[in-house]
Amino acid sequence: MKEYGPLTWKQKADNPSEWAGFTIHMMLYLLYLVSMTCLLRYDEALCITWADVVFQVKDPQMQNHWIDATPELFLNISKSRFKTEDFCICLNLPFRKTHQYGGIALFYLYAQPNRPWMCLLHAFALWWILAQKQVHNLDDYVFREKIGTDGFSVNPTDAMTAEAFLECF
Description:
Blueprint: H1 9-14, H2 22-38, H3 42-45, E1 53-58, E2 66-68, H4 71-75, E3 87-91, E4 107-110, H5 120-134, E5 146-147, E6 151-152, H6 162-167
Helix pairs in contact: 2-5
């Protein structure tokens, strides 16, 4: 029977595949992309909630108008009438001060079909699907506390802490 709990540095070095499974890899991958693309410190990125993330698609009826969409629509793009370039994410980060008088700008993140490994839309949509398999109602934090090697907390208020993030290495 496998024991769950924190891994020591020696255990991680002896069994590199044991430190995290696919689900945790995808969560950390999204965290890196968000931090790098939006120039956030990792402790800022850990505070992002699902309410801050809005998937959008171009309105086919009106030029330069976007409507809210679902991550499933983006992932099933081959079955829809939309193209990859028709999607974006509006990321509203109320905790990031971007103006000396308190103005907070939204981040508009567009699909990157030429660089799929850097596409935040794909990473967010994939994480949405993976997270929904374990937690049916996604509320609160996008990045949750790691449990075991490939699980995360189902409690929406259990955000991954900066210390827990550093323990992932």
